[in-house]
């Protein structure tokens, strides 16, 4: 009888612990969901003209078209900010994944082998330049 009561007590204690863990997990999940909703609302800081211009940069098929679209993107960005701005840039070699310095001559010699990441309004915009002309607006040329 004592053994049955002891086992019953252990089972009851185990159920209480599991219930508390379940409540803790549900509370944590709910907190993450609420935090995620708040971030989702504040992430999109690009205006519609800037987003449209960026879409056109990404969809350009020829080097000349891409260079013109990059200039259009920079103009839309300047219009949205009220002044010309150069967004922070990072470059990576596509094949090796290594970071390439922006003043490295290989970036302008073989731009097609690199991926450029712009940081605009807290968002990372990635594109692959088709020519040196596509990079020139970012370097103020």
Structure description:
This protein has helices at residues 2-43, 48-59, 63-81, 105-109, 132-135; strands at residues 89-93, 99-100, 114-120, 123-127. It is of the alpha+beta class. It folds into 2 domains: 1-43; 48-139, no CATH class. A 4-stranded antiparallel β-sheet has the order 2-1-3-4, covered by helices on one side. The longest helix is centred in the N-terminal third of the chain and has 42 residues, at 2-43.
Tally of structural domains: 2
The global form is elongated
Question: Low-confidence runs (pLDDT<50, min 5 residues)?
Answer: 34-44
What strand line-up does the widest sheet have?
2-1-3-4
Helix segment count?
Answer: 5
By secondary-structure content and strand pairing, the structural class works out as: alpha+beta
Q: Considering DSSP H and I runs of 4 or more, what fraction of the residues is helical?
A: 55-70%
The secondary-structure element order is: HHHEEHEEH
| Percent of residues in beta strands | 5-15%
Total beta strand runs: 4
Largest sheet composition: 4 strands, antiparallel
Radius of gyration of CA atoms, rounded to a whole number: 26 Å
Distance between the termini: 90 Å
Mean pLDDT, all residues: 80
